[in-house]
Amino acid sequence: MYPDYHMHTNFSDGHHTHDEMVYAAEASGIYEIGFTDHISLKPIGWAMDLGRVPELIDTVNRIQHKSNSVTIRFGAEVDYIPNLVNETRGVLQSIPLDYTIGSVHFIDDWNFDTDINGYQGIDIDDFYRTYFKLVSEAAQTGMFDIIGHADLAKKFAVYPTFKLQKIYERCAQIFSDCGVVVELNTSGKNKPCAEFYPSVDFLEILHHYRVPITLGSDAHVEQNIGQYFDEAVNLLKSLGYKEIITFNQRKRIPINI
Fold this sequence. Notes:
Layout: H1 18-27, E1 32-35, E2 38-39, H2 53-66, E3 71-79, H3 85-93, E4 99-103, E5 106-107, E6 110-111, H4 124-140, E7 146-147, H5 165-178, E8 181-185, H6 200-208, E9 213-216, H7 229-239, E10 243-248, E11 251-256
Parallel strand pairs: 1-3, 2-3, 3-4, 4-7, 7-8, 8-9
Antiparallel strand pairs: 5-6, 10-11
């Protein structure tokens, strides 16, 4: 099994402890995982209490020294909030992270990731344009090693009237220029969109622009660690990818697939 670089514990909106997630990974034969609890400077129930950051650091350090069969990386899934970039950067600088995942869950104050009622009556075309603009901005901040679920806008199977090819091209060019990695997030298979993030079409363009890829299950329960990874790796190989990226102290380590 390949490394799983996106999962949540009960420090944010996960259902299990760090120890339980490590035991589950070991039982599944996964030799490397990265913990990525939510960090958000907007008040939202699924993000961790920033007052617990010292406790989180101690917990991950303990697990890293305790685990022999599973390599533990210290990551974070971090909300890109346009008007809170400096404050977010300050929080991240206080944590000894191996990598950061930058995600867009908000448009202004609307949490479109969980508030499905917000889709009623909006211009979906404009929603998509705004979402991908924010994702591109997130890459350009330099705060993030990885862009998380890069086409999350499709989560609830609501789609624009236009083809997304040009937007994918623009994003891929920006990702390439900024040197970010994109995660193949397998949790989309369990959502109404019923496909990985990013889509096959987007992945093809990312490969064309030589944007590196990592793998993440976005597991919130131990049973979902490494979900659909065989299918994900086979897809990457079919598109021409030969490696995925892992991290140690913000440095990239490619591994062959």
